[in-house]
Automatic annotation (TrEMBL):
Name by which UniProt lists this protein: Aldehyde dehydrogenase family protein
Record PANTHER family: ALDEHYDE DEHYDROGENASE (PTHR42804), ALDEHYDE DEHYDROGENASE-RELATED (PTHR42804:SF1)
Keyword line: Oxidoreductase
Record family assignment: Belongs to the aldehyde dehydrogenase family.
Active-site positions on this chain: 247
Length: 473
């Protein structure tokens, strides 16, 4: 990744030069150096990609399901064989620590892609309902818009089930992480995906995202990103009444009950709050704790935080790398300063540069104690390694605080298993992890409230890309 690379669009099975000469630089956030550039795409580029997807749709949608399943399995195998390349690419583009990148940024997408073969086998593509035959058919051309924080995972979670469903795709990746999308496009070709079935158009969201959302030739938009951007996608899509699936922001609560194993709850709580530098939509950024045990839990959190080395993301020992960009660094730093100004107690980290690091988009991982439930840092999505510890008086207040958010994407509960399960059922959120339960790749993932609509992964993720036809006989 040392040489600057010129990336092009991927349209109709090959690299394609953009409609204009303007380019957008890709910057390594750890070194502040330019490593690549991509086309500043236009609506005309989107038109070309959509036309290719429309031409490819009739033939691809007619391919037997078993053959489509075999094709996405080949994509999964390609990812497996290139895990190191994908991990290194993500690390260079957005600073994800290489150890995390190998396991999660590259390894998890391989597992997700592999899981859809079994989903296809057990899926009810047709079923009888009285005198009606229900037939599930591909929705058509899908516009997929993905973020920078998990570029390969988000691409796989959208593109693989869409292709399995029989749809064709036009992808707009983030301009922060376009190299991952370029590598994935080459992999689809190697897997035998026909020309036009998968296309990539680079460029600013305000241009390419708007063009995709409102395009009459696109039948569905699947978007992951901020809630504000998701609202704009919905508005753009309304003119053509296309389906919109949104996976948006989050402010997930980690509810630690009085009967929890505190060491486990706090240790996992820090891990899920700060993984990927806190740049995950389902990060457990609010730690809700019994008021009488607040100080004890903060001490445990500070002790756990000490093992999170900040530094060069290419070093396997690094647990927190830079933020994805200088802009994101400024955003996170601003929230840390706001928390201090609003009176929250800095228990770990705080404002200012990271000691010993002179360049790059770094921030100090920070734990705030005694945070008010309605504080800005407890309500707004920061998207960085910032944890708010919020005390509660009793269980009723804990549930009320957990649900006091415009978001509802993820969350967790730690406590005696039956007790924790009962609290989990009361949380208004799309996913709750109890006592660190294993992430199930075939279970639906998505949010309540302003965290979006629709679901990804497994059977539910496949259904997003299908229409249901009722044939009465």
């Amino acid at each position: 990744m040392s040489e600057q690379r010129a990336v092009q669009h991927w349209i109709d099975g090959a690299e394609a030069v953009g409609d204009r000469r303007e380019r957008i630089e890709v910057v390594n956030p750890a070194t502040a150096t330019v490593i690549a550039d991509v086309p500043a795409g236009t609506a005309a580029d989107v038109d070309r990609a959509v036309a290719a997807a429309q031409r490819a749709f009739p033939e691809w949608s007619a391919v037997p399901v078993g053959e489509r399943a075999a094709a996405v399995t080949r994509i999964a195998d390609g990812i497996k064989g290139a895990i190191d390349d994908f991990a290194a690419t993500v690390t260079s583009e957005m600073g994800s620590p290489i150890s995390y990148a190998k396991v999660v940024q590259a390894g998890l997408p391989y597992q997700v892609a592999s899981s859809f073969g079994a989903v296809a086998d057990g899926f009810a593509w047709e079923e009888e309902l009285g005198n009606a035959l229900l037939v599930r058919e591909p929705i058509g051309v899908v516009g997929a818009i993905t973020p920078w924080n998990a570029p390969l995972y988000q691409t796989v979670a959208k593109v693989v089930p869409a292709l399995l469903a029989g749809c064709t795709v036009v992808l707009k990746p983030s301009v922060v992480t376009p190299l991952t999308a370029a590598l994935f496009a080459e992999m689809t070709a190697a897997a035998g995906i026909p020309a036009g079935v998968f296309n990539v158009v680079h460029g600013a969201g305000s241009v390419i995202g708007e063009a995709i959302s409102g395009h009459s030739g696109i039948d569905m938009v699947s978007f992951t990103g901020s809630t504000g951007a998701g609202k704009r996608v919905s508005i753009g899509a309304a003119g053509t009444v296309k389906r919109v699936a949104l996976e948006l922001g989050g402010k997930s609560a980690n509810v630690i009950l009085d009967d929890a194993d505190l060491q486990n709850a706090v240790g996992l709580g820090i891990e899920y709050a700060w993984m990927n530098g806190g740049q995950t939509c389902a990060a457990w950024t609010r730690m809700l704790v019994p008021a009488r045990r607040h100080d004890e839990i903060v001490e445990l959190a500070v002790a756990a935080a000490g093992s999170y080395d900040v530094g060069d993301p290419t070093d396997p020992a690094t647990r927190i790398g830079p933020m994805s960009s200088a802009a994101q660094q400024r955003r996170v730093s601003g929230y840390i300063e706001r928390g201090i100004a609003d009176g929250a107690t800095v228990a770990f980290g705080g404002a200012g540069p990271v000691e010993g690091i002179e360049r790059g988009a770094y921030v100090r991982p920070t734990i705030f104690a005694n945070v008010a439930p309605d504080a800005v840092i407890a309500q707004e999505e920061i998207f960085g390694p910032v944890l708010s510890v919020i005390p509660y008086a009793d269980e009723e207040e804990a549930v009320a605080i957990a649900n006091n958010s415009v978001y509802g994407l993820g969350g967790s509960v730690f406590g005696e298993p039956d007790h924790a399960l009962a609290v989990a059922k009361r949380m208004r959120t799309g996913q709750v992890i109890v006592n660190g339960g294993e992430f199930n790749l075939t279970a639906p993932f998505g949010g309540y409230k302003q965290s979006g609509n629709g679901r990804e992964l497994g059977r539910f993720g496949l259904e997003e890309f299908l229409e249901v036809k009722a044939i009465h006989r």
